[in-house]
Amino acid sequence: MWYQWDTEADFDNWHNALCEELGYPLTGVNQATGLPDELAAKTTEYTKCFEVEGKFIATVENQYAEGLQTTDLRRPMPEQF
Question: What range does the domain containing 7 cover?
Fold first, then answer.
């Protein structure tokens, strides 16, 4: 589901707290062995925000969305070349 924040700083504060709670950065897993792959790039972000109509929006799973404001705003589609 999509949620909105009034400022990018508000999003960053929420996002940084969630990433800390979830133990980010996350180590990747080798799909063939199921073992942690310390050489793989680490996952450093839970989600990414986009500015739309003066608001900052991002997708968030329901279990992490308590207290967040839902939105009908959507990320603009990238331009086709």
Answer: 2-26+41-70
- pTM across the whole model: 0.86
Residue 9 within a domain: yes
| 12 backbone φψ class: left, alpha, beta (φ>0; ψ -120 to 50) | alpha
Integer Cα distance of 29 and 34 in angstroms = 6
- Any domain includes 58: yes
Q: What is the tally of structural domains in the chain?
A: 1
Give the other-Cβ count within 10 Å of 6's Cβ: 11
Q: Which pair of structure tokens corresponds to residue 5?
A: 């924040």
Interval 31-45 mean pLDDT: 94
